[in-house]
Amino acid sequence: MTNEFPATPGVLLAGGLARRMGGGDKPMRQIGGRTILDRVIARLKPQCDGLILNANGDPARFASFGLPVIADGVADFPGPLAGILAALDWAAANRPDVAWVLSAAADCPFLPRDLVARLHAARAAEGAQLAVAASDGQSHPVIGLWSVALREELRHALVVEDIRKIDRWTARYKLATVEWIVDELDPFFNANTMDDIAEAERLAALDGG
Asked: Cβ distance 110 to 158 under 8 Å?
């Protein structure tokens, strides 16, 4: 596929412990007969120049998806910024040709099919250093574009300054925020609880399965 934006690998952030679902991996829950992670991969694969999965613990549990699995490189930091840093480090080591990495939560089964294109367009138009998605007036900081060039600044923020909230870190940079319209379906719906799984079953039918 030929895109009008730079080659952009994607990282799926699956580091959470799903405590509100009684443990286990949220992305492995099923909606309409398919795992949430399978749905996320299907949405992002056409948009990204390769995908990797950020997850801690035994990577073998994700083997069937055929993606590289990278763990957090910062010890004792179970947050999305650590996963983003791990992805930027992976890109620097394995894809020195790329300048940007997309991050997305691995429990968002209905991600927009124009996610990468619109984030890049807004970043370029606004001369921004970072870009994040939003819907219904709410920002989704784990879903965004990250500059590989900022990885050492991010490492310093994590390791030296103990910054854990994404918003605190992104506030230091020029940030483009891209709003998606919510009709019947919020494209950034994420499955946090068992009630959410039931709602996702209903939304999957609206979304064509």
From this structure: no
